[in-house]
Structures are given as structure tokens and as C-alpha cells.
Design goal:
By secondary structure, the chain is α/β, with parallel strands linked by helices. The chain has helices spanning 20-31, 43-55, 70-82, 107-131, 156-176, 197-200, 203-210, 224-231, and strands at 11-15, 35-40, 60-64, 89-92, 138-143, 181-188, 191-192, 218-219, 242-245. The protein contains 8 helices and 9 strands. The chain has a 7-stranded parallel beta sheet, sandwiched between helices. It has a two-stranded parallel ribbon with strand order 7-8.
């Protein structure tokens, strides 16, 4: 059973790893023995993460990466090929949200969210499968959101991007199954991170908490098991699925 969730022979790419959940996912996979390639736009933060992981004995590569740019994405995989690194796990975590009323959002606001959250996952997934070794099994995990299944005011672009990411997951699962690539998604609810902690601990956050059956916000570590499950042999026969982790928030939808 201990081998069921073993990722020690794997190599994982984690996008958006400079902070928040991406940082956590990189730590979890690295401490589980996987070689980890961390990518994001903020190189100084990635270097900090890289040093932290190396001190724990992890194997890590740091790559500055803009998932909205095809040239940046292809350069990432070109570097991996040059270094004879072939990833078999991809965590499409990079994402942003711009909270504004729709009538105040610019076209640039919309494009920024859609390109990062949806186009970026598509670009990364395409290149990931192109570089995969023939016959090798692989896993793509897209980090969606419960807001891909329900709406929220002032977050139209974010909700649209996550709904698109959820269905992209299903479409790629069908397309990539014959290539021995599984594609699944994790849909977190309200997970407390450095970026949203102030809001979640406000009166507005208290109102959200009242709508969660478990009456608490999730913590980053609450996603650890899902990540290890979807990246390992434990989910060998699972593809096209969306694993919701939200304390029951969307159970009544």
C-alpha cells in the first residue's frame, strides 16, 4: 500500500509556484520524493522556494515561466529536453483573479484572467504531452475552483475561466487517454492563503463561512492528499474527474 501513492520516481512541473497553493504543491511533491520543476513569473520567489527545497534534500529546477506566452512555455520544455528532463506530472496551478464589477472591467482585465487561467493550462498541457516519452504514463492536474460550477459577483472573468478549465479537463482526458495521460482537476473552495487571509477573516469572510456546512475555511494542507492521489498510481483508472474540496460548500448545488 505504501507504493500506491509513491511519486519518488516522478518528475513534476508546477506552475504558479511562487506563492500560495503552487508553493505548497511543489513542497508536497518534493518532500514525497519527486523531482520538481517550479515555474512562475517572479523569479526571486522561485529561487527562494528552490533553496528551501534543496535544503530538505529535494531535487528541484527553477524556471522563470509566463504561461500566457507560447514562447515562454516552449522555452520551458526546451530547457527540460536540453537537460534530459522528462516530466510525467503537470500541475496547472497558475491563476489570477481581478475582482471588479463587469461594467468596470477592461478588455485587458478579461484577457489577463482568461489567458492565465485557461489559455495557460492549454498551452502547458499541449507541450507537456508533446514532450512525453512514448508509452510512459503521465498525469495532468488542473487547479480549478468551485467558482467554475457557481457564479460570483464581480468575478465574471474568473468564474468563466474556471468553468472553461473544468471542461478543458474533461475534453483533454478523452483526447489524451490513448496516449496514457490522465487529466483531472481539483476544485478547491475557500482555502486560506497569504493572499486572501485578510478578506476571509473579515465580516464578509464570516458570511461566507456561514454558507459552508463544515463552518470553516480550508487550509493549504487540506489539498495534499488530493494532489498525491491524482499524481500517483492510486488514481490509475481516474481521468476526466473533478475532485471538489470545499467543506461541503457546493453540496447543495
Amino acid at each position: 500500500m505504501s507504493k500506491l501513492f509513491d511519486v519518488s520516481a516522478s518528475c513534476a512541473i508546477v506552475t504558479g509556484a511562487a506563492s500560495g497553493l503552487g508553493w505548497r504543491f511543489a513542497e508536497v511533491l518534493a518532500l514525497a520524493g519527486a523531482r520538481v520543476i517550479v515555474g512562475a513569473r517572479r523569479l526571486h520567489r522561485l529561487q527562494e522556494l528552490g533553496l528551501r527545497l534543496e535544503r530538505s534534500g529535494a531535487k528541484v529546477e527553477v524556471i522563470q515561466l509566463d504561461v500566457t506566452s507560447n514562447s515562454s512555455v516552449t522555452a520551458c520544455f526546451a530547457y527540460c529536453k536540453k537537460m534530459n528532463i522528462y516530466a510525467d506530472i503537470l500541475i496547472n496551478n497558475a491563476g489570477i483573479a481581478i475582482a471588479k464589477p463587469t461594467i468596470e472591467q477592461s478588455e485587458a482585465d478579461w484577457d489577463s484572467v482568461i489567458d492565465t487561467n485557461l489559455k495557460g493550462a492549454w498551452l502547458m498541457s499541449r507541450e507537456f504531452v508533446r514532450q512525453k516519452r512514448d508509452g510512459a504514463s503521465a498525469s495532468i492536474v488542473n487547479i480549478s475552483s468551485i467558482l467554475g460550477a457557481k457564479g460570483a459577483k464581480q468575478l465574471a472573468s474568473y468564474c468563466a475561466s474556471k468553468a472553461g478549465l473544468t471542461n478543458l479537463t474533461r475534453s483533454l482526458a478523452i483526447e489524451f487517454a490513448p496516449l496514457n495521460v490522465r487529466v483531472n482537476a481539483v476544485a478547491p473552495g475557500y482555502i486560506e492563503t497569504d493572499m486572501n487571509r485578510g478578506f476571509l477573516r473579515s465580516s464578509a469572510g464570516d458570511n461566507i463561512k456561514k454558507a459552508i456546512p463544515m463552518r470553516e475555511f480550508g487550509q493549504a494542507e487540506d489539498l495534499d492528499g488530493a494532489i498525491l492521489y491524482l499524481c500517483s498510481h492510486a488514481s490509475r483508472y481516474v481521468t476526466g474527474s473533478v475532485l471538489t474540496i470545499d467543506g461541503g460548500h457546493t453540496a447543495g448545488i
